[in-house]
Structure formats: C-alpha cells, structure tokens
Please model this.
Amino acid sequence: MNSNPRTTSTTAIDTSPFTHRTGQAGRRRLVPLGALLLAALGSFLATPSYAQDIPTSPSFVDDFKSFDRARWYASDGWNNGSHQNCTWSKGQVSLSDGVLSLGFEKQKLKDREFVCGEIQTKQRFGYGTYEARLKTDTGSGLNAAFFTYIGPTDKQPWDEIDFEILTKDTSKVQVNAYIAGKGKNEKLVDVSGGTEKAFNDYAFVWEKDSLRWYLNGQLVNTITDPAKLPTHAQKIFFSFWGSDTMKGWMGAFADPGRKLSLQVERVAFTALGEPCQFPESLACSVK
Model:
C-alpha cells in the first residue's frame, strides 16, 4: 500500500452488470448499455452554464463519503485490449474513511492474471475546472490516471484530457490531450516529493480558447491552438491498470507481489462562470 494508507472501514462497491466498450487501439473505454441510454438522455437534459458553448452537467464535489451510483459506475468484467494485462473488476473499487481506492492485484479473471479498477461518470461535462486529489502506489508497468474522455461508442469524436502517472517514476506526471483521436500534446511534469508520499492536487481548466493543467495550484502546461482543443463534452474517469507490452512508455511490468492502489480523496467539477465550491478549489483563485 501507499505510505500512511487509510485502511479502516473499507467497503466494496456493488455495481450492476456492464457491457463492452471500445476505444484507442482498445486502450480506451468500455461502456455499460444502460449508461449509454443515460448519456443520451443527459445530452438533452444538460444545462449550459455561463459562456458555455458545450452543454454540461451541473457542477459537483464528491468527497467519497459514500459511492454515488447516480454519478459513477465501475468497469467490470472486460479489458481494453491486448496491451492491458488486467481485467476490470468492480471488486477493485472500494471506500475507506472518505477515500476511494482503485486496486491492482494478482487474481485470475477471465483470460488475465491480474485485476484492476476503474470508475467513470454517467454524465458528460463541458467547459470548467476539473480537479482531483490523488495518491498513488509505485510499480513499473502501471498507469494511474485521472482524465476525461468521449469517443465513438458514444457516437462522438474521440476527445480526451489526461493526467497519467506512470508509477515506474512517481516523481513525474504526464499531461496530454487527444483531439479527434490525435495526441502528440504530452508533457512530463515534475511532482515535488513524488506522487506516492502524499496526496497531490491535479486540475485542469478547459475553456473555449485554452486548456490549462495545474499541479498543486501551479500552472504546468497550456494549450491555446484551436486545433488542439477539445470541442465535445466528456465523462470523468479514474483508472489503475497494467501492461506487459507497453514497456517503452510504462516500463517493464513486474508482479508487485502485493495489492497496489490509486487513492482518490476528492474530485470536483466547477462549470465555467460558476462560483468555487470549496475553499481549496482552484476555481476560487484562477480565472
């Protein structure tokens, strides 16, 4: 586990069955059938906020005192392609004293020797401030991610905004964006003290004319080229997974010999033009 893990009052998340979803060379997302219907309905019911050209679901803060099934669902029973060495399992999603944990451990499920955890919102979100407070584990060949995504299964072009912590090197986080399935916007950012020693705040501000990433309140990357800016409302994801094959990017995978976790203490979305929702929010200080 991470240093100083929260280990008491752990509750596993019970979720309903899911069906497959496809994405980036199989890397991205699998969607429950019911969620697709909810997403379609949400696209009609979404309420635009001030200066919104993209419809958005309302602002929210989730401190994971409970698992909000109206907001989240957990991936379960599939993988995202041959590159992924684990099967998504709802059993790897749990709550403990106000922290959501996504696990990775050795446990055979279907055709994989490991299981891993992922959650995603049922709603889509547009322009605004996205922020999460995270703590990772360590291990080569693993990816701990906080990101937004929409794609072909939702009958939309593939747009994505990423924070990806390749836990082979917890001194850095990679930020990136995909527009109509094209990336090449990645940047490695130093994380003082590492991602596994304490919780850190990861945030991005998505506006019509810019996309800015922040780490612990400090601006670390900006994109203003219109051709490199997302234009479609997206779902919010957290995931923790491994790969035997993506060695050049994620490092050579080795069985960690124990259960690892990505811990999420808080996540929030503040729609553009709306007031900040808690004192530490980036939306309180960044315009």
Residues 1-10, 15-51 have pLDDT under 50 and may be disordered.
